[in-house]
Amino acid sequence: MRKIIIGFVVGLVVSLSAVRTAHAQQDLEVVPEEIAQQVIALSVEELKKVTDAPLKVEVDARQSTVLGTVEMGGVAFLTHKNVTEDALKKSDKEVVPLGVLGLYRLALVADKKTVPADKLCPGTIVIEGMTFEVSFCFVGVKTEQEGKRQLMIYGKDKEPLVKVPLNEFETKVDRSVSIECRVGGGEGTLTLNVIKKFQAIVPLKQAS
Fold first, then answer.
1. What element of type H or E holds 138?
2. Which spans in 28-144 are helix H?
3. Fewer CB under 10 Å: which end of the chain, C or N?
4. What distance lies between CA 132 and its chain's CA centroid?
């Protein structure tokens, strides 16, 4: 496992030393499982510092996913333990938690404006001597008027920072929440597929 981690970290250092040029959007890669599990475990420890979270999330590491590289940025989705169709039915009465989103060198966008990092929960992840400053936000679902489901993303406060439609869209993924992320040229999109039946697309910006 150490060889895998060292190889991955060396690749990240090489990426950082490269000259920055404009990139066409491309998919962020799935981080190797050995590293992903470290990121997830360290993120869970960092989240213990958040004493007034807007949503209560119990992370299921087996259902969680980490994507990214140092050069392009990274995304971790720490999935809540009880993301089921029955649980989502309660979203007409309350916000149902989906999980926690961790962002590295990426920022949320609301009303075409970048959401300041200080509105999110900060965290620090250290792997093999490399330090990653990340931002955490809490993700849930709320069914509003006329039965329209909304994906709600919260930072430090009780009001959502981002709200996007959660539309019906069938997928064949094997996780209760799966993510895809495309970035490049300063822009990005995060796609969340929920229990194989719903999908939301969240706009992002690449941060320096």
1. strand 130-143
2. 33-47, 85-88
3. C
4. 15
